[in-house]
Specification:
14 helices; alpha+beta; single chain; 17-stranded antiparallel sheet
Length: 815
């Protein structure tokens, strides 16, 4: 319903027309330059003035429910105090909140008004954002209504989207609807070719021009109907509108903020190396899809000290605040949408940035702004090791050997709050790695429609990455998993399916249709723009166990392998942080081709064993053997490798064996076998809840402390391997040092004396430190080399100790 009922207006109109004479004492004014200004009263009703002459007396939200009209001008209360507001931390905006009177339901509104930067004539545009929430979204309509007094605007020409609809009539027409359109953007009111007002929507939507004199208002009305809010609840609708006095249609910037900020305006902006410079932009622009760079593109061009430039893409952003309410995570919107640009500098010295906004209808750029990058303690991004392609390396040259486990998602109640405790405990234990999932039930950003990402889920991942940066943890972020694409109950979370407006009827469609690939690449664009800055993203994992999607389907298998190579290449081309890329399989068997492309930087496996009391073969009980076999298999690819999921599980994927192993002996064995398997990290336990509940973090602590000061990627280390009926020994050796792990074989001789011989070592004295893998250092002893009887110029070192432990480790260093 688009017309006002006279009975209601008979009550409302005196109040509406009293606005110009009875503006509340706490009015706020937005200067538009050259004597122009916008004024908001205490309820957020807008009027436009020039030199205190009222040019436009009222703009307000009106709503219709069951044919009954109500409006913001008669709001019963302002449910937040009137105050200057901020967008992305920047002052310069006026904000109003209120409740529209409506019996039997709740209708709340928010009004935000701010001026753009000035145009060539010195006049600023007014950017208005109206947000409307209703308990009955399917039945309620809302529009931003501009009232143009008939006495002043009769005979003025009105154009919609550049086409004239005629002049505003002197006499009331029989049909009060002068013009109606469902998909338009702009209304311009002119007088003799001179623009009086230009009203332009950010998104196309319903616009009505009508003669309100039918209901006694004495005004013409232009109504802009609010649209569903992208990425926000169904109860919310939004209108972002540019009110221009000179018919501007290009992008208009209101504020550009930075984090960090200088303490004072005249002080330089200082950013630590490998830290974060975040730019926040509040602007108006015409676009349909904020996730399509062909529709709108926001970029910053960064000038660096070495005279190179980098282009960093921006992303659409909704701010959320986190709190716990009734024992559950609650994410609440904390302001208006804006755009962000995140940059992590890799050079020290003077930098500068310029921001560009480009749309189909125009473009704009900011002035250049300097900032200074200073040294920091952050070791920087992760790359493949320069000297040892089986390992990872940090930007400062140090080897990154991974100690950590999965923390794929938070609990159903606490979600992101779980990570506050998880990461703190992991950091305290010496862990430096975690694997997290962007899954539909937690941090997955895919929405129920194409290109409608879940900003609340993105806010969770923001928090998790910030925590990782604080606690020195490197994240492998899994972008997709087989459950979300194969399970029928999860299809509702993904816009790619036809029933949600997408392109796909089958899983094969997802991996082969050009339109589906293009949609996925838009998601990769968003992921890399928002999180590609972070040095603490170890790598992107395209899929968790994508082989389970194929289930023997050779055509789908081939499509998945081809798609993986294609998307890995695309991801690398769009990622400003140049992060590593991988994928994962449920088994390494039969899918060798997926690891071969050079765009896949490292290999990972998932290793699970049956519950020990259900094992039918000895090898199913041999935890260390399973770890070593996986590493040997992956060594064929010549890339870094680690076991990204490890544990015991039943046929239904439960974890009773892990719960029964209260001391984590199986996990401990896997970790220590992984130290010397040739892998780039220790096996990562899958059952993170068991690690947390059982306080098994110390298992990683002991291994990390044992290797402290030992760089396994350093040239000169040679693998040490020895197996007999009693002992399995794995480690690495140089001519003057060795680190070894010794495991008693199941069914071997009774515990007692352990002896290890190191051959061809430099003559002299060595310090041997014996280590209990579960508890830490046991003892130290000095040992001297022995010349060989058959070759006196060559020396051996014999290490012995008495122990009842199932496994023991030793560090040997020449004095």
């Amino acid at each position: 319903m688009t017309s006002h009922t006279p009975a209601v207006l008979g009550i409302l109109l005196p109040l509406i027309f009293a606005v110009s004479a009875a503006i509340a004492a706490d009015n706020s004014r937005v200067s538009l330059g050259q004597g122009y200004a916008a004024e908001l009263d205490s309820k957020g009703v807008v009027r436009i003035l020039r030199d205190d002459e009222v040019l436009l007396p009222a703009a307000f939200v009106g709503t219709w429910l069951d044919g009954r009209f109500s409006d913001q001008a008669t709001a019963t209360q302002a449910y937040r105090p009137v105050r200057p507001a901020t967008v992305a931390g920047q002052a310069g905006m006026i904000e109003r909140y209120g409740v529209i009177p409506r019996q039997g339901t709740t209708e709340a509104y928010q009004v935000y008004a701010r001026a753009s930067t000035p145009g060539p004539d010195g006049v600023r545009n007014l950017i208005l954002t109206h947000v409307f929430d209703t308990a009955l979204p399917e039945k309620t309509q809302a529009a931003l209504i501009f009232r143009l007094p008939a006495a002043e605007f009769t005979g003025r020409t009105v154009s919609v989207d550049g086409t004239s609809i005629g002049t505003l009539p002197k006499e009331q027409p029989r049909d009060p609807i002068i013009h109606r359109t469902l998909h338009s953007r702009q209304v311009v009111v002119t007088d003799g070719g001179r623009t009086l007002f230009s009203f332009t929507r950010e998104d196309a939507g319903q616009i009505i021009v009508q003669d309100g004199r039918r209901w006694g208002s004495g005004s013409f009305e232009i109504q802009f109907y609010l649209s569903p809010a992208r990425g926000q609840p169904a109860s919310r609708s939004v209108l972002q509108l540019l009110l221009s006095l000179n018919n501007s249609r290009g992008p208009a910037i209101a504020t550009l903020g930075t984090t960090p900020r200088p303490d004072k305006e005249d002080e330089p902006l200082v950013v630590p190396k490998f830290g974060l410079l975040e730019l926040s932009l509040d602007f108006w622009a015409q676009f349909e899809n904020p996730y399509d760079s062909g529709d709108i593109e926001v970029t910053a061009q960064i000038s660096q000290p070495d005279r190179t430039t980098r282009t960093i893409r921006g992303f659409y952003f909704l701010p959320f605040q986190r709190e716990i309410e009734d024992g559950k995570e609650k994410l609440s919107l904390a302001g208006l949408p804006d755009w962000r640009i995140r940059f992590s500098p890799t050079q020290t010295g003077p930098h500068s940035f310029v921001v560009f906004i480009k749309t189909r209808t125009g473009s704009i750029r900011t002035v250049s702004r300097p900032f200074l990058v200073v040294e920091s303690k952050d070791p920087g991004h992760v790359s493949l090791h320069a000297d040892n392609r089986r390992h990872f390396q940090l930007a400062d040259g140090r080897t990154l050997f991974l100690f950590g486990h999965n923390v794929a998602w938070g609990s159903d109640n606490l979600h992101s709050f779980d990570y506050d405790e998880y990461f703190q405990r992991m950091s305290e234990a010496g862990e430096n790695f975690a694997r997290v999932w962007m899954a539909s039930w937690d941090m997955g950003i895919e929405g129920d429609r194409m290109d409608n990402y879940r900003q609340d889920a993105a806010a969770r991942l923001d928090h998790v990455i910030a925590l990782a940066e604080r606690y020195g943890i490197y994240l492998q972020i899994c972008l997709d998993n087989e459950n979300d694409y194969a399970a029928p109950d999860k299809r509702k979370f993904f816009g790619c399916w036809k029933e949600n407006g997408g392109h796909c009827s089958t899983v094969l469609d997802f991996f082969t249709l050009p339109a589906a690939k293009a949609a996925y690449q838009r998601r990769l664009d968003y992921v890399t723009a928002r999180w590609g800055y972070s040095p603490h993203v170890l790598g992107w994992e395209l899929w968790n166990e994508s082989d389970f999607l194929a289930q023997g389907d050779q055509k789908l298998r081939t499509a998945i392998i081809d798609w993986t190579a294609e998307m890995a290449a695309y991801l690398k081309s769009r990622d400003p942080g140049r992060h590593l890329v991988t994928t994962s399989l449920g088994s390494l068997d039969g899918w060798n081709d997926i690891w071969k492309p050079r765009e896949i930087d490292y290999v990972q496996a998932h290793v699970y064993l049956p519950e020990p009391d259900r094992a039918t073969k000895e090898e199913e009980r041999d935890v260390a053997g399973a770890v070593l076999r996986a590493s040997e298999q992956a060594a064929l690819f010549g890339k870094p490798f680690f076991i990204a999921e490890f544990g015991h599980r039943t046929a239904d994927y439960g974890n009773p064996a892990n719960e029964k192993d209260a001391k984590g002996s199986g996990l401990r064995t896997a970790i220590w076998a992984g130290l010397f398997s040739g892998a780039a990290g220790t096996p990562a336990a899958w059952w993170w809840q068991t690690v947390h509940k059982g306080n098994l973090y110390s298992l990683y602590t002991s291994a990390a402390r044992f290797l402290q000061g030992i760089d396994l990627a350093q040239p000169g280390w040679l693998p040490f391997s020895s197996d007999d009926a009693d002992l399995r020994i794995r480690g690495v050796q140089k001519s003057n040092a060795a680190v070894l792990w010794i495991q008693r074989r199941r069914g071997g001789s009774a515990p007692g004396r352990v002896e290890v011989r190191l051959s061809d070592v430099r003559p002299g004295e060595y310090e041997a430190t014996w280590w209990n893998p579960a508890a830490g250092e046991i003892s130290r002893q000095t040992v001297s080399t022995r010349p060989r009887e058959a070759a006196p110029d060559r020396s051996d070192l014999v290490l012995t100790t008495a122990t009842d432990l199932p496994d023991i480790a030793v560090r040997v260093e020449k004095k």
